[in-house]
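Quick one: Permease from Absicoccus intestinalis, structure tokens please.
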Amino acid sequence: MGSWIQNELLGMRWIHRWMGQLLMWLGVDVQTRMGGSIQFFLYDVIKITILLCVLIFLISYIQSYFPPERSKTIMGRFHGLGANIIGALLGTVTPFCSCSSIPIFMGFTSAGLPLGVTFSFLISSPMVDLGSLVLLMGIFGYRIALAYVIVGLLIAVLGGSVIERAHMEDQVEDLIRNAVSTSIESPTLTLLDRLAYAKEQVVSTFRKVFPYILVGVGIGAVIHNWIPESMIEHILGHSNPFGVILATLVGVPMYADIFGTIPVAEALLSKGALLGTVLSFMMAVTTLSLPSLILLRKAVKPKLLGTFIGVCVVGIVLVGYGFNLCQGLLI
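--- reply ---
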């Protein structure tokens, strides 16, 4: 039953078989590189699109119960490490990409919430949303998916704690620090309101991320069928002890969400890249994309921005090497 859920329900392998039969009927030989690439591309685009729409709808419905004002109130009730944990957990039910999370982070900071708590939220929001858990289960299995979410939350909690202990409140831009926070009571939503909100989020998010899905799946198809396995193993496999660092540094300036990076990660793993190296690449892309860092710079000063980047990079690299050591237990 577990294998059926992973392969047929979440992994949708039946779509892969159908695509193969359809292409063969159309005269395309899926055993060739070109035919295999087309099959991989169509299968992954359809699979991720279905998962994307279903997950966004469900998560947006849950998110309707946690608008920024309510989240701020919840986080304000906790202090110390507990507050960081709550901030990281609330990040799992918020927008899918880092650029969407930063305006919420600015609002929390303006409201006077502890800096470490807001950064725990900022780290976890794009890295370990609930959608990533389900999608990773379909691609890599439940062991890897759960391990990824747990270590992602750990990075968020520890990263926020480090920033809070550094006492860098003076490194927040005056525009954010001196902003007047107004507490507006959230309206009571009916069931129909929540369903309408979830539908709107599906349409809005799909329009924004679908181009990245196409690019990510396209890159994955090229890696899967055209790049020699020996090359991937040499660069990102056992033969390169610096593969985790390389994957992290390559991922930082890129911009994509979890749905765009997973096809690339799936192809790299199938070609011999180590698990931790692949997951480090995913974490770097989703958490430290260049556009999000530029946007974050408007809210914090260079010293705090550099600390945030450094904490995340160190955490991601350590997690990558840890997963590489435990790969045999997870796959």
